[in-house]
Design a protein that fits this description.
It is a single chain. The chain contains 2 helices and 4 strands, in the order αβββαβ. It has a 4-stranded mixed beta sheet with strand order 3-2-1-4. It is globular, with a radius of gyration of 17 Å.
Length: 107
């Protein structure tokens, strides 16, 4: 329709949407923490670096699947160390199915 929208306006809309979705995300995390069986894995992704134009770094989506509740939660972290899954797994009690990467076992 020929309307020009400034990138800063679109960025603001995306941020506002993220803010609205945060309570839903937090609720989903709380539900899977209370489950007694989780599947977890991390997947590397390229992330654009805002400090270096045209450059990227490796980030990770940590994926948590609750097959009993049919819920999947994606948690982005910059790294793959033992602190990455801590927010979700610290209060988790039950069976955790992983590919054996040792970070998931290091509470």
């Amino acid at each position: 329709s020929g309307i020009t929208i400034a990138p800063s306006t679109i960025d603001s809309w995306v941020k506002q949407l993220g803010d609205l979705l945060t309570p839903l995300y937090d609720s989903m995390v709380n539900v899977i923490k209370k489950d007694h069986y989780l599947q977890a894995d991390e997947t590397p992704i390229k992330v654009l670096d805002s400090q270096k134009k045209g450059k990227s770094h490796r980030g990770y989506y940590w994926v948590y699947h609750s097959p009993l509740k049919n819920i999947v939660v994606f948690d982005y972290k910059k790294g793959r160390n033992k602190d990455a899954p801590r927010k979700i797994l610290d209060e988790f009690e039950g069976y955790l199915q992983t590919d054996g990467y040792q970070v998931e076992n290091s509470k």
